[in-house]
Amino acid sequence: MRPHRSNLAACTAAICLLCLLLHLDALAAQESTLPGPTVPDGFGVNIHFTKFQPGELSDFKNAGFGLIRMDLGWGEIERSTGVYDFSAFDTLLSELDSAGARALLIFDYSNPLYDQGLSPYTPSGQAAFAKYAAAAASHFRGRHVIWEIYNEPNGGFWTPRVNVDDYAALVKSTVAAVRRVDPNAIILAGATSTFPTNYIQALLRSGALASVNALSVHPYRGNNPETAADDYSRTRILIARAALPGQKPLPIVCSEWGYSTVTGGGFSEQKQAAYMVREYLSNLACGVNLTIYYDWKNDGPDPANNEHRFGIQTQDLQPKPAYLAAQSLISALRGYTFRHRLDASESADYRLLFQGSKDLSLVTWSSKDNGDSPSLPTVRKIAPGAPQYNELLRIASVRFAPDTSKSGTVMARAPVGNFLPMAAWPTAVSQPSGFNNIFYLDNKPDSSAIAAVAKTDSGAPAAVAVSFSYQSGKEWRYYTLAPTEPIAIPTGAKALSLWVRGDGNGITIRARFTDQTGQTFQPEGVAITWSGWQAVELPLDGLQASHWGGANDGVPHGRLQWNAIPLLDCGGMPEHTGTIELAAPQYVMP
Question: Is 273 exposed, middle or buried (0-12, 13-18, 19+ CB in 10 A)?
Answer without folding.
Answer: buried
